[in-house]
Specification:
With 237 residues, this protein is α/β, with parallel strands linked by helices. It has one domain: NAD(P)-binding Rossmann-like Domain (Rossmann fold), CATH 3.40.50. The chain is built from seven helices and seven strands.
């Protein structure tokens, strides 16, 4: 596999490659954001990845999710993604976990220990629990905010959640984290572009979540920003 990472080695050196190969990363959620983030990690030479997502590939995913094809409909996202990543790096140690992330199972998910956690999940309660547990366990975490209802990739920002501006989800999470005594320590990928509510859909049935209007490139850009922050953080000084 040396040749596969030869161009990366020219940029970050053998020590950098070795550090990435030794890294253990958990990616929570492999949808539009998470799928692009995890593939960028694999192509950079990250050695151990755990993917957690309960969903299967749906036709509505095709416009923005890397693993979503007409041939993968109905298949578990983590399984499809794991198979794809092993075609990129045969030496990758990958654990696909098809399970729903909840506040109750977050501690067990983090129990093996990781160098870094990437949060790309949608559920607010699960997201909050994951961030709280990462901070309490001193596991560096990078969290994706919402990419729906937006079109401008130049408005994407990276900052500590305490410094984020113009993102409703980040503001809500910041408020909830403060209630548990956490005011900083969570890196967020967010956009300060105003969310156009006219771009969001309406539920088809009572009790269903509101579908969110999204474009092909915005979740991908969020995921690549996440991967860039992760890789730069993992590399030796």
């Amino acid at each position: 596999m040396t040749e596969c990472f030869s161009r990366t080695s020219l940029l970050i050196g053998d020590a950098g490659l070795q550090r990435l190969a030794a890294a253990r990363v958990l990616v929570a959620g492999v949808g539009g954001v998470g799928s692009y983030a995890v593939e960028a990690l694999a192509r950079a030479g990250i050695g151990t990845l755990t993917l957690v997502d309960s969903d299967t590939v749906q036709a509505s995913n095709i416009n923005r999710q890397l693993h979503a094809l007409t041939t993968t409909l109905g298949k578990a996202k983590v399984a499809v993604m794991a198979e794809r990543l092993l075609q990129i790096n045969l030496g990758l140690l990958i654990t696909p976990r098809q399970e729903l992330i909840t506040p109750d199972n977050v501690p067990a998910l983090l129990e093996p220990g990781y160098d870094l956690v990437l949060d790309a999940i949608d559920s607010l309660n699960a997201k909050l629990a994951l961030l709280q547990n990462c901070v309490e366990r001193q596991i560096p975490v990078i969290s994706s905010m919402g990419a729906a209802g937006k079109l401008d990739p130049t408005r994407i920002r990276i900052s500590d959640i305490a410094d984020s501006q113009g993102c409703r989800l980040a503001r809500k999470l910041r408020k909830e984290l403060r209630r548990s005594g956490i005011s900083s320590g969570v890196t967020v990928i967010y956009s300060d572009e105003p969310c156009n509510l006219e771009r969001l859909g309406e539920p088809e049935a009572e009790g269903e979540r509101r579908p969110l209007g999204t474009i092909s490139y915005l979740p991908a850009a969020f995921g690549l920003f996440m991967a860039s922050e992760a890789i730069r953080r993992l590399l030796p000084d």
